[in-house]
Amino acid sequence: MPAQLPIYEIEKAIVDSLSASHRLVLRAPTGSGKSTQVPRMLLRHGILDAGQAVILQPRRLAARLLSARVARELGVELGREVGYQVRFENVTSASTRIKFETEGILLRQMIQDPELHGIQAILFDEFHERHLYGDVTLARALDIQESTRPDLLIVVMSATLDAGALARYLHPCRVLSSEGRTFPVSIEYLSRRAGAGSPPVWDLAADAFARHAEGDVLVFMPGGYEIQRTIEAIRGKSESKGYLLLPLHGELPPRDQDAAVARYEQPKVVVATNVAETSITIDGVRVVIDSGLARIPRYDPNRGINTLLVERISRSSAEQRAGRAGRTAPGKCVRLWSEAEHAERQAQELPEIKRLDLAEVVLTLKAAGVEDLRRFRWLEAPAETALSNAEELLHDLGALESNAITPLGRRMLAFPVHPRYSRMLLAAEEYECVYHACLVAAVTQGRDLLIRKSGKDAESVRADLFGDRGSSDFWILMSAWTYAAKNQFRMDVLRQAGIHGVTARQVGPLLEQFVRIAKQEGLDAEPRAIREEALQKCILIGFSDRVARRMDDATSRCELVHGRRGVLAKESVVRDSALVVAAEVQEVGGRQGEVSTILSLATAIEKEWLRELFPKEVRSELRVEFDTATRRVQAFDELHFRDLTIDSGSVDPPSDAAARVLAEEVLAGRLPIPKWDHGVDQWILRLNLLSEWCPDLQLPPILEADRRHLLEQLC
User: Fold this and answer.
1) What's the chain's average pLDDT?
2) H/E run at residue 220
3) Can you tell me the distance from the alpha carbon of 21 to that of 438, in angstroms, rounded to the nearest whole number?
4) Stated pTM of the model
C-alpha cells in the first residue's frame, strides 16, 4: 500500500513546511514514493484546492508510467483527475488535478500564460539529473513566484543532490530528508579492465546473469540495440529457463513498457536504459547487472538538435543503479568494469546546461521577456561561448534582432523542434511545400532512418528502391519512409531495404503533429506535387549557417560559413554540386587521434538563391594579391556569403590596387626595385636628419607614409 512507503514518515513535515514556506527541497531515495505520493498528499490535504500540481519529469516514459500508476492507485481514469503531457502527446482534461509532464512543456506554457493560471504547485522531480529545461524552468518559476504568484508552491525533489547549494539558490526555503528503507547491496567488479579483446558487453551481462540469477534481475544497457542483443544472449543461457525476458526503453510501444514494470508469478529479467535508474520503480529486483554505459545527452552539431551518445556513466549514477537491488531485501550489483576503472570515472554527470545546444532555450527565454541572458538567475551559468553561439544562430535565422526576439522568432516557437526546423517550416508557406517540409522535419527528429551503408552496391539498391533525385539527400529519406509506409512497416521488408523499423514507425505521428500545428498557424499543409527547388530553398533558409562550397572538383573537401571545413559524405547524392547546405556536420574520430568533419544530409543550392534570400549578406569584393610563384600581381572578383567565398573569377588588377600590393612587397623586403639601392636610402636618411637638425632650412622629411606613397607611384 502507498501508506507503507517511506515518504509517508515525513508527510506531516511536508504539509507543514509548504504551509509555512512556499519553497521546499525534498531529498528522498529512489523507491521512497516521492514521485507518486507527494502529489497525492497535496491533493488530500486540500493544498491543491486553487489549482493543479504539475510534476516535471526529465523523461517522457517516466511521465506516462508515473501518471498511470497514480491514476490506478486513486482508482480514476487516466486523463481525468490524473494525466500527463509530453512532446506530441497530451492526455489531460479540464478536471486534471495531478499532471505529470516533461520539463520543456511548462517553460513554453510560461510564455503563453506568465501567471500560470490554474497551477498551484510545481514539483521538480529527479532534479539531481540537472536537465537543461529543469534548470531554466525552475529559474522562471522563482521569477513568477516573486512577482505575480506569491502563492505558487515550488518543490524540488531528488534522490541525491547538493541540498545545501540548492537551498542557497532557493533561499528562503525549507529542506526535508527522508532516509527511506534500503537493504545492503554487495558490489562485484570485473577482475580486469575491458580491452580490445573483451567480449561484447551483452555477452558479459549474460555471463553475469548465469552466475547470479536469483529472483527478478534488472540489467542496465545504453540503448535499444544493446538491450535486444542482451536479451538474445541471456536467452541462450540455460539459467534463463522460466524467466520472462523484457525490454524497457523510451522507443517501445506503451504496451511493452507497461509489461516491463508489471508484476508476475514467475521471475523476470528487465533489460532497461537509464530510465530505470531513478524515475521508474521495478519492484522485486534482487540482482542488478550494470553495463556502466548510457546514452548521455549532448549537443549534436550534425542535426542541430540534442542527441544521446554512448558514454561511461558517473560514479553517482552507478550508485543509483546499484541501489535498485536493495529495495525489498539484501541484493547484489555486478558492474561490468573493473574497480580501478570505477575510481577513474567522474563523480557526477556534467549538468546539461554545460553540454547542450542552447538555441531553443535561448529563443524561449527571449519570448518570455528575458532581455539580458548574462544576468538571468542561472542555477549554474552556461559558458559564454555557448550563449554567443546560440544568439549568433538565432540572428542568422531571423529570430533575433539586436538580441531581442522578432515576430518571426515568436512564430517559430509554435513548433516544438529546434529553431532550424521551425524556421524551415515557416519558410515553406511561401514556397507552397509545407507538407514536404513537415516530412523533412519528421524524418530527422529521431535516430537515423537509414542504416549507414557504403559502396556502389548499396547506392544502386538505394536508387532502385527510393529513387535517385540528385538535388537533396532529404528526398532519399522521404522516399524511404514512403516505401516503408506502403509496405506496412513490415520488418523483413525494412531490414532488406536498410531501413530502421522503430525509427520509421515514429515518423508518421510526428508528421501528423507538424501538419496539425502548421494548419493551426494558418499554413496550407495539404500534400501536393512541388518543385524540387522550392524545398531546397526552404532547407537553405533553415540551415543558412551551414552553407558549404566545394574547394575543388577533384575531391569532396568543402569550406563552410564561419570558417569551418569538412568533407561531403560519400553516400550524398549532391557530392558533385559546387554549393550545398548541410543539415548534418558530424565530427568522426579516426586513426591516431585524427578527427574528420563529415557533411551529410546535404542539399544542392545556387548562388542566385543566396542573393535572392539573403541580399544583405551577399557582397562582391575585389581581392588583389602578389603571387610569389609567378612574381606577379593577381586579382580576383569574389562573391561572399557572410564570411564564405562562394564564387571567384580572375580579372585584370586595377593599376592603383596593383601598385599598393607591390609597394607592400617592397617595404617587406621581398621585392627589390631596380636603382632603389643603399645610396637612395642613405640620401633619404641625410634629408631627414637635416630636416630635424636644421629646421631653418625648412626641408620636409620623407616619413614612412611618404616612402609608401613614393613606392606606389613608382610601381
Assistant:
1) 88
2) strand 216-220
3) 47
4) 0.80
